Amino acid sequence: MRVRNKPWAPKLINAHPELITETPADLRGKWQTRFAKPQPIQIEVGSGKGQFIIEMAKQHPEINYIAIEIQTSVIAVILRKLVEEPLPNLQLCHADGQAVTAFFEPNEIDRLYLNFSDPWPKSRHEKRRLTYKSFLAAYQEVLKPAGQIEFKTDNRGLFEFSLTSMNNFGLHFEQVWLDLHAVVTPEENVETEYEQKFSIHGPIYKIIATFPTK
């Protein structure tokens, strides 16, 4: 996805260290200090413009959320929304979500969301897919025992790859949807910007899976 540069983004990020961090490794094991009160922590790796994570934070004030996004101009859009309407249970992390073990201690996270990740369709790039076994191992490390991952995509190839990868890793499938929007109501499914725009072109696939206990 090509992202238009936003010259105002770095200045906005620098002005709000209380809402966003660019050095998440410094908070490893101390993320609760960033929130109004200690609560279960859930993270979204690759949050885009934040529609999903913001709505989740609004609907679930009893949970603390962290949005992880690498692109400066994109996470600045989330930050601008938070400046206008602060949420005490949402923090932003401007960093590469592939490095979650550097950002979080073992068992620090309760649930992890992957929404419409880059499918990396070429076979030689499969190790870059966020459901590849090395990423699953990293997620398992930072999640609490029997922690869950929620995965959504509109890419059938990535969905099939993810099913196989998760199964081979030993995850237990709680639920699998082959056409999510055909069976759930809008109230039951918090959509991303991408999902809202592209779901008319084909089915949305979703997996909720639980990691095996070590």
Automatic annotation (TrEMBL):
**Enzymatic class:** transferase
Q: Does the keyword tRNA processing apply?
A: yes
Per its record, the protein catalyses:
guanosine(46) in tRNA + S-adenosyl-L-methionine = N(7)-methylguanosine(46) in tRNA + S-adenosyl-L-homocysteine
Region of interest: Interaction with RNA? 124-129
Where do the annotations place S-adenosyl-L-methionine binding?
Answer: 44, 69, 96, 118
- PROSITE patterns, per the entry: SAM_MT_TRMB
Q: Which UniProt keywords apply?
A: Methyltransferase, S-adenosyl-L-methionine, Transferase, tRNA processing
Is the keyword Thylakoid assigned to this protein? Answer: no
Protein name per UniProt:
tRNA (guanine-N(7)-)-methyltransferase
Which residues participate in substrate binding? 122, 154, 192-195
Q: In which pathway does it act?
A: tRNA modification; N(7)-methylguanine-tRNA biosynthesis
Superkingdom of source: Bacteria
The record's listing under PANTHER family reads:
3-DEOXY-D-MANNO-OCTULOSONIC-ACID TRANSFERASE/TRNA GUANINE-N 7 - -METHYLTRANSFERASE (PTHR23417), PENTACOTRIPEPTIDE-REPEAT REGION OF PRORP DOMAIN-CONTAINING PROTEIN (PTHR23417:SF14)
The record's section on Pfam families has: Methyltransf_4 (PF02390)
The UniProt family comment states: Belongs to the class I-like SAM-binding methyltransferase superfamily. TrmB family.
Signal peptide start and end residues? none
What this chain does, per the entry, is described as: Catalyzes the formation of N(7)-methylguanine at position 46 (m7G46) in tRNA.
Q: Write the Enzyme Commission number(s) for this entry.
A: 2.1.1.33
